[in-house]
Design brief:
Elements: H1 5-16, H2 22-32, H3 36-46, H4 50-99, H5 107-126, H6 131-153, H7 159-178, H8 182-188, H9 192-215, H10 220-243, H11 249-274, H12 291-323
Helix pairs in contact: 1-2, 1-3, 4-5, 5-6, 6-7, 7-9, 9-10, 10-11, 11-12
Length: about 325
Amino acid sequence: MNYNCEMIRDLLPLYVDKVCSPASAAAVEEHIRECNACASLLGEMSTADPLLDKEIYAERSRVLDTQAKFFKRRSAVAGCIIGGIFALPILICLIVNLAGGAGLTWFFIVLAAMFIPASLIVVPLMVPENKFLWTVTSFTASLLLLLGVCSIYSGSSWFLIAAPAVLFGLCVIFMPFVVYTKPAAKLLGNQKGLAVFSADTLTYILMMVMIGIRAGSAGFFRTAFACSIVPIGWVWMLFLLIRYPKWNGLLKAAACLLATALTGFFGNTVALLLLGQGLYLPKFDLSFTTGDSISGFVCWSILIICTVLAAVFGLCGILKNNRK
């Protein structure tokens, strides 16, 4: 079979490095037996000095390292300049505060507030690695610092409620990304999802505990537990069903739908039992005249729809396993 010289010359580097497929190698060998030009080119490539390739790779690495250091220096300089710009309003506030005879009152609030934009702009420019992790950490710390300073100067203790609530919200938003940063991923391994759900749950519990302490009500913790255990349990059930069983996707979907059906139907029952209000089961009432009839209709709708869908997905999952 005749091959085009241009095609063979494209394959020669792969042939010399012995990384082409057997069919491509056979085509090259067949062609060079008939084409002296390509055979000569192959001989030149085969006898090339390997040290030259090493020098080229080394020079490329040196160039890349030089460019990386250059951009790091420029980022550091830019971070210092922006940090100096942020320092100007702080200095002005200090002078105005002292000149007005008010002492250092709202100066500390302005100082703490300036840490927030600095954490979002200066920190990513200054740190060489793990920029996202450092940015999120510094932003969280600066936000908590601002809340603490405002709480102190307002003469109140609402910081004990605001701080856990902020931590819970930030965990929900940023933890799914934080666990994939290099240090966290190395530490957690295959338990990233477990770490995310654990952090969200712990910060939520901390928030509710601090709210209960501030409320000072004896029945708050019982009510909070009764209202929280069902949704938290449902979220954990979905996570465990998706993450750990070695089932196919259809069977996992069926299990999640069944868990949703049971949670939606018996959620109010569990909450009322924990509150000591007796056994309650949703009634199938289509009158829609009372809140109980509407709630019962919603519970029954969730139970029927999710159970039917779970049966469909479960059957498809079983058939899929049987085909395999």
